[in-house]
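Q: What would this chain look like folded?
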Amino acid sequence: MRQMFTILAVFVGLTVVTGCERSAEQHTAQGTHEHADGTTHTDHDTEVAGEHEEGHEHDGETGEDHDHAHDEVSLGTVTIDDMEMELAQGHGKIEAGKEGHLVVKLPYSDNGETVVRAWIGTEDRTLSLVGKGEYAPSHDDYDVHAVAPDPLPEKVMWWIEIEKPDGSKIVGSAEPLK
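A: My prediction, written as structure tokens:
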């Protein structure tokens, strides 16, 4: 019985770590993957050096060293608590139950010491899944993936929480592409 629980725990752990049904080799070899719901992603941190999506040059660089303006559309700048930051949205328009992608460019460079979180929905986070930004040193910004609530609230927004290295936090919002 104990062995069964150990095997189950390992299986659940691997499922959570991988996030989809493709193996690490498949992610690394192809650089993109498709989820059961039909959404397709580029794995920035697992792309093979020299491979690229249409229109993107890598010149032998690794996935972290390339320009990542894939399908991102600028949302312009937003000011939150006297901090002006640039935003871009990827994965198309916000849709109920679908993943959205937000790129946050802070007005300062701290080599990823800031914690950036974002969610789609309302300020109180009701039915929203909060995504934590991954710092991309090659372009000095943060990539955040979050799933929109289903159903979408009437006045859906991107909500951004910035936790500075000194521990202070600010929260604000920006209008998404709809």
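Residues 1-67 form one domain.
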